[in-house]
TrEMBL record:
Similarity comment text for this entry: Belongs to the paxM FAD-dependent monooxygenase family.
Sorted UniProt keywords: FAD, Flavoprotein, Oxidoreductase
Keyword Flavoprotein carried by entry: yes
Lineage top rank: taxon: Eukaryota
Residue ranges of domain FAD-binding in the record: 15-182, 296-354
The protein, known as: FAD-binding domain-containing protein
Organism name: Linnemannia gamsii
Amino acid sequence: MSPTVDTTTNAPPRVLIAGGGLGGLFLGILLEKAGIPYEVFERSGEIKPLGAIMCLSPNIFPVFEQLGLYEELVSFSKPLRGGGYMLTDKLEHITTFESMPLELMGYERQLFPRPELHHMLLSNIPKEKIHMSKNVLYFEQDQDGVTVTFDDHTTIHGDILVGADGAHSAVRKHLYKDLEKEGLLPKSDSNEMKRGYISLLGTTGALDPAKYPDLVKDDCQSYGIVGDGNNPYTWVTFTVPGNRICWNVVVQLGVSETADEQLNCTDWVPQQNQKMMDEIRHFKTIYGTMGDLFDATPLQGVSKVFFEDQMFETWNHGRTVLLGDAAHKLLPSTGAGALNAMLDAVVLANHLYDIKPTSCDNIKTALNGYKEERFDAVLDQYSQTHFAARLQFGHTLWERILRHVLFNWIPRSFQMKQISKESAYRPQANFLPRVLKRGTLEVVPQKPSRRVFQEEEEPNNGVVAAAASTL
């Protein structure tokens, strides 16, 4: 049998994206702009994003500007200017979180209901490029490409497979299974994800501003309320456009019978959410009780999720690569999960754009480069989300002591320095016109595009060659 020959072509690679979440859709929009063929395959029959509050930071806004989507994002958002407040369950003040100066950051943090961002991204993908009810069953990859088989027994062939299919990624599961057979999977990647908290979340319908005067304020009013030693809950409210309030109730596993009962419950119907809501209706907020907000929230729009986390070592192999929660499941305590999925998409799109000509070796080089460029940045975020979760949601004695020490003894300047460091990472799409830097904060230098550099040099080389031929 003759050996398989690596097929090389000047055509851009065909990218198969498994997962229609924020990361997968954002990658699709970027590839659309880059002129790279792609298709998105979503496992469910319809895309129903969680009805949760979401916060985006300045790290990703330059790319939204490049895509012409920033103004639309701001239209359904409220800026977090005051930073927010932390209170006890008796509504006594614990601390005030200060926001960074606009003149330094260049952008304000924006808060909004997650489904509205999802809808905006989805509307920017051509309908013919999104395929529903396509759950990855397995895939095979070789020198000639990657072939994906779905559970409806259909197949698709492409050059690259992107697993953007979430924390319980089918792409990662099959990839790791193959790597484990070959003895190439790090031991840590076979561990189960850690679960530390359960969250119940939702968004009210339109409320009466006369009863809730915070609704008419231009900026988001955020209140995080921490239970005392006998109450292992944290509950948070945020005002969003449309005279609505997003709410989130978090309970720590291992310190609450209610949380442990919910963890062991396999029945995820709305009635189970209602049971948990009934037990915590009496929790106080500055607006009355949580029960008042529950009553204004459609039960079908209430979601229960586990806060899981794991930093995987293996992000790519052959023609397959992981993105977002499939590669790194971060705790949502700092809004880092969705943000880093979109940052992954930006850096991955840059490396895919640099593939020229398209060959198996060049694809492997691009996917390795993506992982190398992103891994340390995500690893730093991973540790930050753990620390933030302890401060916001932790109820062990050690975590309560930690919260007291930080808010009463650690200088605010130290906290501001850390936020500045995190905000300095702002990669842009190399294949789109760059957005001028906003604010005075020095941003992290970006790795230039090899392809763009070569294409800029080619005309100059042609001029030099023509001049030399006349001598």
